[in-house]
Design brief:
Blueprint: E1 30-31, H1 43-55, H2 65-79, E2 88-91, H3 94-105, E3 111-114, H4 120-128, E4 132-135, E5 139-141, E6 144-146, H5 149-157, E7 161-167, H6 179-191, E8 195-199, H7 215-218, H8 220-224, E9 226-230, H9 233-236, E10 244-247, H10 251-263, H11 273-283, H12 285-309, E11 314-315, E12 323-327, H13 335-346, E13 348-349, E14 351-352, E15 363-367, H14 372-394
Parallel strand pairs: 1-13, 3-4, 3-7, 7-8, 8-9
Antiparallel strand pairs: 2-10, 5-6, 9-10, 11-12, 12-15, 14-15
Amino acid sequence: MTRQPKYDFDTTIDRRNTDSVKWNVAENVLPMWVADMDFRTAPEILDALKSRMSHGVFGYADVPDAWYNAYINWWEKRHGLKMEKENLTFSAGVMPSVFSVIKRFAAPGENIVIQSPVYNNFYNCIENSGCNVVENQLLYKDGAYSIDFTDLEQKLSNSQANAMILCNPHNPIGKIWSAEDLAKIGELAKKYNVTVISDEIHCDITEPGESYVPFAAASETCRKVSVTCIAPTKTFNLAGLHTSAVYVANPVLRRKVRHALYTDKIAAPNSFATVAAEAAFNRGGEWLESLREYLWENRKLVEDFLAKELPEIKAVKGDATYLVWLDISALPETGRNAAAYLRRKTGLFLIGGDAYGTGGEHFLRMNIACPRSVCLDGLKRLKQGVKSLETEKIG
């Protein structure tokens, strides 16, 4: 008799009419764009939230010791980073934290370095703070990405460079940076007195058997020059609960960060934020292992489908995130135009790589955190749209 899996990722959950940003689309549209999953969170987390809900009183919440312990134990056991309670601060989200820190650490007109193509909201945070976006474009060769350290040093050495936002693992390319690469970044940051703001929200969504290296764990230098933003939200599909943490080992930086978070009123939890995080890190490990297996089966489905049905599109090898970075350089359109065409022609909603800055112009980003049947539907629509696009261009 076939043993049924403990966790169900195959059932399609109707998210329409639930005020979902992702699913607030026309009936014929299949959204595979924004980075949230179409799976229910772990049942262990749901049980904890139901228990808190049953209490019925939702006044101002504090951050309990259990919340600190959950983060500390998870990062030490899974990622080899020993964090101290006094160096952790609750925050209401990774991107609010990044924005808050930028405003505290950089004055309008100063430079913030990012590694393009990279998460589009980094651009928004920098520009909205009045600072200048400076791109250290990643090198792309033979389907793989690497860091241009010569260019990075040039950008960091500029007297106007005040901070660097690191994406670790990197969104949208799905790469886990090596300890060696991270240590080199740390040394450059120290040399030029630049603070590294490390967004590590995707850190637990890695290929089974693979793990990421926290920037603060790469070297003692990295630990001292960095502000690390972490959360259970991508991993356990909890973005709507607005729960995250900021880890800063350097006491001088930590005082500035805490002042920024408290000034911007994002350092206090709602009634469910710490409850969800504690349950995720204390009891969600088995669910996460099942999820990772499922996601990488989806990734293999994408790779095999493209190789057989759409060889003109290449899936960049990714070892982290549930986002597939599609190289469409063989097509006669940019990512932005191709995405618009696919949505209009087939209803498939992807993001054009142009949104992620220089180097993303000939790519598409596809979110595969969905039931396998939905993933296959998206691939079939992709094939239909690409074949139609090629025919129209040829004709």
